[in-house]
Specification:
Layout (H helix, E strand, L loop, with lengths): L1 E3 L5 E7 L5 E5 L17 E6 L4 E4 L1 E5 L2 H6 L13 E5 L14 E6 L5 E8 L13 E6 L2 H5 L7 E7 L2 E2 L2
Parallel strand pairs: 6-7
Antiparallel strand pairs: 1-2, 2-3, 4-5, 4-11, 7-10, 8-9, 8-10, 11-12
Length: 168
């Protein structure tokens, strides 16, 4: 849920944590670049499969603006999207890999951050299924789904950690 300031710009964002708690944090300002999705450089963002006790991404970028969701991983080099990296796109019901130069894994999540669908080895110039029961997706390096044993029904924790406090 977002609130708008007097200018109509989003100023606060309420985020639901993996354990069901909610928190409010300032949205990134419009001056920041689309590629810089972190609130502050010292923040650590991650995706953790609580069911399998495995990190899907320990360095997670977040795409929540229209422009950032549209761009996704376009322009990212394969050498920069290695094990431990990821992109969380919300809201999202499906993705494309138009103009990409490498394959990815895609994990579809529902509102409770439960895995509802998996797409492995999505090659460039493909479109994944559009699933209305998904509210967000994780784009991950190739073979992440296999190496972590992620399956439909797994619960995923998505978080932004600032210092020792979970902030999103």
């Amino acid at each position: 849920m977002e609130s708008a300031n007097a200018n109509g710009a989003n100023s606060k964002k309420t985020v639901t944590l993996g354990d069901g708690d909610t928190t409010t944090r300032s949205a990134p300002d419009a001056e920041s670049s689309a590629a810089n999705t972190r609130t502050r450089p010292e923040d650590v963002q991650y995706a953790y499969n609580k069911t399998r006790q495995a990190f899907l991404a320990s360095d997670l970028d977040i795409a929540v603006t229209h422009w950032r969701r549209l761009i996704g991983l376009l322009g990212t080099r394969r050498s920069n999207f290695t094990h431990g990296r990821g992109l969380w796109i919300a809201p999202c019901h499906g993705v494309h890999t138009f103009a990409m130069t490498f394959a990815i894994d895609v994990v579809y999540l529902d509102v409770d951050r439960t895995v509802v669908h998996l797409e492995e080895n999505v090659r460039p110039w493909r479109v994944t299924p559009v699933l209305m029961n998904a509210c967000s997706v994780l784009e991950l390096p190739l073979h992440t789904i296999f190496s972590t044993g992620t399956s439909v029904g797994d619960n995923i924790e998505l978080a932004i950690e600032s210092g020792n406090k979970v902030a999103a």
